Amino acid sequence: MRNIRFRQILATGTAAIALATVLAACGGSSSPDEAAGDPVFGGTLNFYDPIEYTAWTPVNSIWSNSQVANNLAERLTWQDPKTGQIKPWLAKSWEVSPDKLKYTFRLREGVTFSNGDPLDAAVVKANYDQHALGDKALGIPPDRFFSDYQASTVIDPLTVEVAFTKPNAGFLQVASFYRAGSILAKPFLERDLNGQSQAKNWVGTGPFVVESVNGNTGITLKRREDYNWAPTGAGHQGKAYLERVVFKTVPEAGTRVGALQSGEAHIARNISPYDEETVTANGGRIEAFAVQGQTNKLSAQLDSTTPIVDKQVRLALQAATDRKEINTTVLSPSYPIPSSILVKDTPNRGDASKYLGYDLNKANSLLEDAGWRKGGDGIRAKDGKRLQFEVWVAPFYQVSQPVLELLQSQWKKAGVELVIRTVSQTEYESIRNTRPDNWTLVQGQTSRAEADVLRTAFDSTAQNEFFAPVPDAKLDELVRAQAFEFDPAARTKAIQAIEDRVFGEGYAIPLYDETQVFGLAPTVHGFTTESTARTWLYDTWITG
């Protein structure tokens, strides 16, 4: 399969690469198309996605779900996806206490949920309490993004105070985040986990509401006619332009591209690199949006019984990874080459370029020094055991398979055997939950346009991505310390220290900057996303 894909990409030639570069440079714009004319109201937009829609809880980050949910529920603040600046939304203003432990939000007047209930301080408190603390009686776990949360207090009907036990420099961004900051109505919050996992039960303040649900393969949204509280920075105010949006699961990449060409689909998510030119050659366009937060990477599982626990081996794998070749061979200019643990343009991002260069000689030297010798087939061995690692293809990422296949050939040059396993999404999640001893490397990334995502991911008391049997006390100290820094320069320095620790220890192997690539029919205008590339259709309209 890889060779076929390689030929498809290479056959496009330098002209196609140049075209894709121009498209990537233009992608991500939130401005309406200059040649499209004035926006028009009405119409149904058809959105095709490769992944099924399951478990509709607010904290679910499955890519397909979040493209929909971002249009149903809103947040107190809005993060400009271009600048990272935090702006008013459901909160018209806020203050941070001198000790940085309290945030006081003043809410907009006249905002209502889709069931007619008013937005007030009491329902904001109820949402934040449930997000941060969970609810055992309802089976709802706490959200890991609410670190050091103490309580929310209603000051008056439109003023709420949110308190923390420790300073939290990233909280205004949490309040803007599509999953952690979502505000939903009281009837929804009173449901148990099963009730909250059904899209038909969502009651938000967003510009769209759920009209119908088709199992796990489709959902239709309809416009709220009385909506009039878009965030600062939106392209217009009042109701959305689109009357309806139909989201549909279409796993086959070729079918999604064909639907764009025929006019059956208006937007298709996860356009493969080798399909980008096909879309543009037929009058469509490619929009590529950086998923701010962690870069797409392999995380070492340090509780493994394999050689991944050896720092020398981890550093060798890092040196044997040629990210430029990955980009030019199986990806496209839509995907930036990683130079940090954070995706390009993520606020306060550090620079890890010195750790991420390709150096096959260094990789071979490190493995030799660690006692791994090449055998007759070119694969190294030590004490009778082959230097072999297994990795499962992450079904959530369109480009996972070809990237891992190329990585397999790169590591083989250093005498490392990478065994690739491909399973269904259900099987993948089951295997991931059981975490077998031979699970040595996990592909993934956590998206949040805030450097504090590193605390969520790496803190041994939080997500704990590396699963070290004995926590790395230094890493814990660094990821926690950055949250206390409110000065931008000091914060950037603190993030750089985290980068130095992670890559100095070889804990993570970046592959590419996570990017969402959408194919748009020529009739689609004003399309944009929020800061982590989740679709936001409020300003979108269609013609023809």
Automatic annotation (TrEMBL):
InterPro entries: Peptide/Ni-bd (IPR030678), SBP_5 (IPR039424), SBP_5_dom (IPR000914). Keywords: Signal. GO terms for molecular function: peptide transmembrane transporter activity. SUPFAM superfamilies: Periplasmic binding protein-like II. The keyword Chaperone does not apply. One of its GO terms (biological process) is peptide transport. It comes from the Bacteria. Residues 85-441 form the Solute-binding protein family domain. GO terms for cellular component: ATP-binding cassette (ABC) transporter complex; periplasmic space. The keyword Transcription does not apply. Residues 1-35 form the signal peptide. This is Peptide/nickel transport system substrate-binding protein. It comes from Nocardia alba.
